[in-house]
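Justification of resources, computational component.

The compute hours requested in this renewal are based largely on the per-chain cost of generating structure records like the one below. Each record pairs the submitted sequence with a full structure-token output. That output is archived, and it is also reused by downstream analysis tasks.
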Amino acid sequence: MSNRFLLYVAFSLVLFMIWQQWNIEQNPQFQTQSQIEKTKQSQQPEGDIPEEALLDKSKIKSPDQEEPVSNVKNKGENLTITNSDVELTISTQGGTIKKSKLLNYFKTTEEDSENINLFDYEDEYYVAQSGLLHDKTSSKNEKTKLAPNHHDLYEVLNKTSDSVTLKWLTKDKDISVIKKIKLNDAGFNVEVTSQVINNSRRAWAGRQYRQIRRESSGEGRSWVTPTFTGGAYYDGTYNKISYDEISKKKPKLNVQGGWVAMMEHYFVSSWYFSEKENNLFYTKEVNAEGDRKDYIMGARSEALIIQPNENAIFESSLYVGPKLQKELEQISEGLELTIDYGVLTFIAKPLFWLLDKINLMVGNWGWAIILLTILIKLAFYKLSETSYRSMAKMKQFSPKIQSIRERYGSDRQKMNQAMMDMYKQEKINPLGGCWPILIQIPVFIALYWVLLESVELRQAEFIFWLNDLSTKDPYYVLPLIMGASMYFQQKLNPAPPDPMQAKIMQMLPIIFTAFFAFFPSGLVLYWVVNNLLSIAQQWRITKIITSSK
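The structure output for this chain reads:
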């Protein structure tokens, strides 16, 4: 049994799982006729504001007072704030963050390429909303508006290059809310505060909510890199939630700390919370213009009671930017898990750490991949040596094996017994070449996801024509070298005794070349270097064994 065949089979399984996940995401289940009828008969979808809570009146000691309704429904004014990494467009309607232009990330490698807009209200609807909810009382139907949600209009109090301060008032000016949205000097963190000033004769009780709303879109995804696009949250464990799950399950749960997020291949937006803060995490599906469906990941805080002539501040934190592992680790526990390495994260994270350290020394991600491949090859040198020695011996005795097959013909029992006797006599372990490779497969798969998920490789230059290690080789040079290296490596292996298996093995270099032609060049670079190192090691060991006879 050839160890290379095992490796090819294992990698083929990886490709199959990728294709299967892509097929699931690209082809959602169709509704049955009964489901369609139920949908028609159901009520209209919920609005995009979380439900208010029922107030405990025992905590309110001041008399009731009617407040006028103040619900402005125009679109408001757009304001821009910026730092060295991101530019935000903020609406005076609710303080909604409508656009986030990433100043150092571009759509393509062309000189005139546009910046990536993570939040965007024009092309693909994707925004961060926040607001306040005044708790209802149980004794009467409260119709007055005592807190601004993200539909209400604010006036501008102050604006600087990196912050904007807004103000909302009830009509009689007894309750005012000062909302400030501020960027740090650098980075992708946004601080949002809402100060509630209560000048009325009764206590104010309410909560803040923060949510991310976006339409479902599969644009920009590649069939060879079908990474997850959808919602996620952290409640002590990392949880992904697809748009379909948001639509059908609408989960709600109370969480201490944690975060909620919307994520895609290289970028993520997340409201994250302090360890002392308790929130109700919720999801919603809402109808938008035309046939568009929008999905919401949000969190609603616990109630805060503000007595007359007092004030209090609601604080919120938002991250909107690339999935930079070191930065995400420092922001909130578990947020780095949005860089989704899968079940082999415990292997993938150290591999990325090592890759990053090498890049800091050499200053080029392509050379870093090559050096990391060499280090991995050295780490598994002894295991590979055992495998290649076993293969070399098997190749050496291939004529004898073929002779046994011809001698016993269709009598498989006698043939197998004769082959086992030969293995015992020559001290050959037919499975000796398999197990060392099987041990290495998890490391290979983990490195595969590191190279696929790392935003650091996006538009990273290597040499010559390779100016983006996250996209395919435009001239298919690396895939062709990879295919040739697989072919020559096969020549060093013993030919499979089964004719059908031999034909399959001969086709594998062609099949894999076709697959790798569309894979990110960083992945193909790793595979090429790994193959070349394997060929050199296998050739050396085969030569030593041959010359010793």
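The two ends are 23 Å apart (CA to CA). The first strand starts at residue 78 and ends at 82.
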